[in-house]
């Protein structure tokens, strides 16, 4: 037993030590934001506020309870700052908890091949890759396996503590109820240990009730609102997720191991795999490989059982897993380290070359973390930027629309992130659904395409060249200062309650004109036009319709005219956080 424990610990250390300096990645940014908020409000780490996809929001609707945020908050309080190496050292301990819990389970179900089964589990590509992140998956996996191992060992008191901790990490901890219930029923312990099955529901229900009493909103309700807003529970998303999860299940132990899963039967382990996978198809929408980690343990034991008399097949499976897992982990390291290196160099150059200019970041994930840590500001949807500002962006993330104050973006430097190995978990043009089906459906992709391209650009002042701005014309963009959203249907744009434009003054006096639509849902009726700060037209309409506002011929001065169009009331619609006023098809001096 001691020899097996020593080998498992050594194996985990060999997996983790090369990646202790792993850069902040993926959703680490949001968990760290919660940890920082917990320094001032320990009871409500998920009240952290940040910008997500261009919209200000807080974490109350986050798809995980605050357990992981509390772990990170404790580390932050202890260390005084966010540092990659000591944080990953702490999470290495969670990898050991998961691995040793797995060893205990393997010794119960497949004693002759317990060590081999445990090594198979540790070599699962998702464990190798995602065990190097600071997201909730590793803490959840560690306490999930610890809970089941302790229940199987008959240690009810310690199991109760582990179940509480597991429930604080993820909502899917409720799946412990049927899995543990089956085990207790089979062992004749259900009447005596039934109370263990109440713990996940009690913890998650208590957390939601506490939030309802102290903040007015239940996290589960806010999460459901996010599902509705972003359409995350659409049938299309569910089908894509199911396809991706099926692929991840096949890759988890290579086709050699998947064959064993189809052939080998052991009632509890098979029920564990079947129950969790069926629930994953129903609950999840992004199809990420890490979602299936809680069924990796019984899967590994089933593989070891099937090939118990043919150990070379187990070692072949292990070798293939390790080769793939470590390769993907290295590609993942190079991806996120690219953001860290770019930010360090770019922000240093900014301080030397541009002094105190504002720097904005139009991205998410690790790039957001490293740029904001060095003083950059996140771009909010419709953000008004001005000449002189610098913008850091990347090709992989969703672009949040902003206006340039009449200026033009001029690229100053870029970094093409291209890992050495031709494997991709995520990337430009990649069809891998390893992290999300939003990028593809394959478990991973084989390509030499860049993972991402990161740039830093400056907005330089540009004189307007157009006197009339049809909203459908691409060149119009550079003369929109603020208050106008992206082009829709190739013809028109929504504007907020107030929009500002730069125009090239005509050669002589010309009428100022605006072509608008006041839709049925718009409450505003009074529309105002100003030229260079002076009101030139104000008109009230009695009903929604299509209108044209036009002034008498107006003189202009200088080489730039500033035009403002406003409506007296704005509004919002469900599922859209924008402030809307009216629809605009064109504005400017009459052509």
Which secondary structure elements does this structure contain, and how are they paired or packed?
Layout lengths: L1 H15 L11 H11 L10 E4 L2 E4 L8 H13 L4 H26 L4 H9 L2 H6 L6 H16 L3 H12 L8 H11 L3 H4 L5 H17 L3 H12 L4 H18 L1 H10 L3 H17 L12 H11 L4 H43 L5 E4 L2 H9 L3 E2 L4 E2 L5 E5 L7 E2 L4 E10 L5 E2 L20 E2 L5 E9 L7 E3 L9 E9 L3 E12 L6 E9 L7 E6 L2 E7 L4 E10 L6 E7 L3 E3 L2 E5 L1 E8 L2
Parallel strand pairs: 3-4, 3-6, 5-7
Antiparallel strand pairs: 1-2, 6-11, 8-11, 9-10, 12-22, 13-14, 14-19, 14-22, 15-18, 15-22, 16-17, 16-19, 20-21
Helix pairs in contact: 1-4, 1-5, 2-3, 4-5, 4-7, 5-16, 5-17, 7-8, 7-9, 8-11, 9-15, 13-14, 13-15, 14-16, 15-16, 17-18
């Amino acid at each position: 037993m001691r020899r097996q424990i020593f080998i498992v610990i050594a194996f985990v250390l060999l997996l983790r030590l090369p990646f202790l300096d792993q850069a902040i990645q993926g959703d680490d940014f949001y968990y760290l934001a919660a940890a920082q908020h917990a320094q001032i409000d320990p009871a409500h780490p998920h009240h952290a506020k940040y910008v997500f996809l261009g919209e200000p929001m807080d974490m109350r609707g986050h798809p995980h309870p605050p357990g992981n945020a509390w772990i990170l908050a404790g580390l932050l309080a202890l260390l005084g700052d966010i540092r990659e190496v000591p944080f990953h050292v702490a999470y290495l301990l969670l990898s050991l908890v998961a691995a040793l819990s797995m060893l205990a389970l393997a010794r119960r179900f497949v004693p002759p091949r317990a060590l081999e089964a445990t090594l198979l589990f540790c070599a699962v590509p998702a464990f190798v890759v995602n065990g190097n992140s600071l997201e909730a998956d590793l803490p959840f996996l560690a306490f999930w396996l610890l809970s089941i191992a302790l229940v199987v060992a008959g240690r009810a008191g310690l199991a109760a503590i582990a179940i509480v901790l597991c429930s604080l990490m993820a909502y899917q901890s409720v799946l412990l109820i049927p899995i543990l219930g089956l085990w207790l029923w089979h062992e004749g312990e259900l009447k005596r240990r039934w109370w263990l099955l109440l713990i996940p529901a009690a913890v998650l229900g208590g957390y939601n009730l506490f939030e309802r009493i102290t903040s007015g909103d239940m996290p589960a309700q806010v999460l459901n609102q996010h599902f509705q807003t972003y359409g995350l529970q659409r049938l299309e998303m569910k089908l894509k997720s199911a396809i991706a999860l099926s692929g991840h299940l096949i890759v988890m132990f290579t086709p050699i191991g998947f064959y064993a899963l189809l052939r080998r039967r052991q009632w509890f382990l098979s029920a564990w795999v079947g129950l969790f996978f069926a629930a994953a198809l129903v609950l999840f929408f992004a199809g990420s490989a890490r979602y299936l980690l809680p069924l990796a343990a019984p899967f590994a034991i089933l593989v070891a059982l099937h090939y118990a008399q043919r150990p070379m097949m187990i070692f072949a499976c292990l070798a293939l897993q390790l080769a793939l897992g470590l390769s993907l982990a290295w590609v993942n390291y190079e991806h996120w380290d690219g953001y860290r290196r770019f930010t360090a160099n770019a922000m240093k150059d900014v301080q030397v070359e541009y002094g105190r200019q504002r720097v904005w970041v139009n991205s998410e994930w690790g790039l957001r973390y490293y740029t904001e840590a060095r003083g950059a500001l996140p771009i909010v949807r419709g953000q008004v930027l001005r000449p002189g500002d610098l913008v850091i962006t990347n090709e992989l993330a969703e672009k949040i629309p902003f206006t340039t104050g009449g200026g033009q973006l001029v690229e100053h430097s870029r970094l093409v992130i291209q890992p050495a190995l031709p494997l991709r978990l995520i990337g430009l043009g990649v069809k891998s659904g390893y992290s999300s089906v939003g990028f593809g459906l394959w478990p991973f992709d084989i390509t030499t395409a860049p993972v991402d391209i990161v740039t830093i650009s400056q907005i330089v002042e540009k004189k307007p060249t157009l006197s009339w701005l049809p909203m459908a014309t691409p060149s119009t963009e550079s003369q929109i200062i603020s208050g106008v959203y992206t082009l829709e249907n190739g013809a028109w744009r929504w504007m907020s309650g107030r929009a500002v434009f730069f125009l090239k003054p005509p050669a002589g006096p010309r009428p100022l004109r605006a072509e608008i639509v006041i839709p049925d849902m718009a409450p505003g009726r009074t529309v105002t036009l100003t030229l260079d700060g002076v009101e030139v037209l104000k008109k009230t309409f009695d009903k929604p319709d299509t209108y044209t506002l036009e002034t008498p011929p107006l003189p202009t001065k200088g080489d730039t005219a500033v035009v403002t169009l406003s409506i007296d009331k704005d509004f919002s619609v469900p599922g859209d956080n924008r402030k809307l006023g009216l629809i605009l098809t064109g504005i400017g001096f009459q052509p």
